[in-house]
Design brief:
Blueprint: E1 2-6, H1 19-25, E2 29-32, H2 47-60, E3 65-70, H3 74-83, E4 88-94, E5 115-116, H4 134-143, E6 147-148, H5 149-152, E7 168-172, H6 177-185, H7 190-194, E8 198-202, H8 209-212, H9 214-224
Parallel strand pairs: 1-2, 1-3, 3-4, 4-7, 7-8
Antiparallel strand pairs: 5-6
Helix pairs in contact: 1-9, 2-3
C-alpha cells in the first residue's frame, strides 16, 4: 500500500529516513513529504499550500492510501480524509490529534519576525524527549525549519462527514492509549469522538518515534494497512 508520511512542525521528509526502508522491506510504498514552507525554501508558503501538497500526494497514490500525520501534522492527515474520503484507507496519528473545523492549525507558539522557530528542547523536557540522546537532540535542532506564520495561522476547514467513516489509528508515544481514550470520551478530541472506528496502539517512545523507534514504528504502520 502507498503510505503518505507527514512530519510535524519544524521537520521535513528527512525525519522519516529510518522509517522508509523498514516500510519498504515490509512491502509498502512509503512517500515522505517535504511540505511547502517546511524544507523547500519557500518562505511565502501558506497553510493552504500544505493542504494542497498533502491531497496531491493522496491523489498520486496507486489506490487508497494510509495517511500518517505526526504531531501538528495530524491535522493535515485528517484534512486529507475530509478532502479525499474514498482515497484514504486509514489515518494514523502519531503523538497528535486532528483539529476541529474553524480552529487555527498551530497556535502553540507566537511567530517571531513572521516565522515560528523551533523553541528549543527546554519546551519538551520530560516524556516528550527523554528517550532522545543529546547528540540526536542537537542534530534535530540543527536541522529544524522555522515555519512561516502564514502556515501556523491557517484555519482548518472540514466539510465532508464521510471522513468519520475513515478508520483511525492513534499511535500513542509520550501518552498512553488509556489517556487518549479518556480525551476522546470527555470531548477533548471532538473529531475522533465522531469517528466510527478509532484504534489505539502504544509505542514506548517519546514524541518523535521516527527517530528513536523507527523499525517499531514502521511495523505499527504496516499493521495499519491490514484492516
Amino acid at each position: 500500500m502507498d503510505i503518505v508520511l507527514i512530519a510535524g512542525m519544524w521537520l521535513d521528509a528527512t525525519a522519516w529516513k529510518d522509517v522508509l526502508p523498514a516500510l519498504a522491506e515490509l512491502g509498502h510504498r512509503p512517500v515522505a513529504l517535504t511540505l511547502p514552507g517546511q524544507g523547500d525554501g519557500d518562505t511565502t508558503a501558506t497553510y493552504a499550500d500544505q493542504v494542497a501538497a498533502v491531497t496531491a500526494a493522496v491523489d498520486a497514490a496507486a489506490g487508497p492510501a494510509l495517511v500518517v500525520g505526526h504531531s501538528a501534522a495530524c491535522a493535515l492527515a485528517w484534512v486529507a480524509a475530509d478532502a479525499r474520503p474514498t482515497k484514504v484507507a486509514r489515518v494514523a496519528l502519531i503523538g497528535g490529534m486532528p483539529n476541529a473545523d474553524g480552529e487555527t492549525y498551530f497556535g502553540a507558539f507566537e511567530p517571531v519576525d513572521g516565522v515560528v522557530p523551533f523553541p528549543g528542547w527546554g519546551t519538551f523536557e520530560g516524556p516528550d524527549s527523554d528517550d532522545m540522546p543529546t547528540e540526536l537532540k542537537a542534530a534535530v535542532a540543527h536541522g529544524a525549519i522555522a515555519v512561516p506564520a502564514a502556515i501556523t495561522h491557517g484555519v482548518v476547514q472540514l466539510s465532508d462527514e464521510r471522513r468519520y467513516d475513515v478508520p483511525v489509528t492513534m499511535v500513542c508515544p509520550e501518552f498512553t492509549p488509556d489517556q487518549a481514550k479518556e480525551w476522546v470520551k470527555t470531548g477533548e478530541i471532538p473529531e475522533l469522538a465522531k469517528a466510527r472506528r478509532v484504534d489505539y496502539v502504544d509505542i514506548d517512545s517519546g514524541h518523535w518515534p521516527m527517530y528513536t523507534k523507527p523499525v517499531e514504528l514502521a511495523r505499527i504502520l504496516a499493521d495499519c494497512t491490514r484492516t
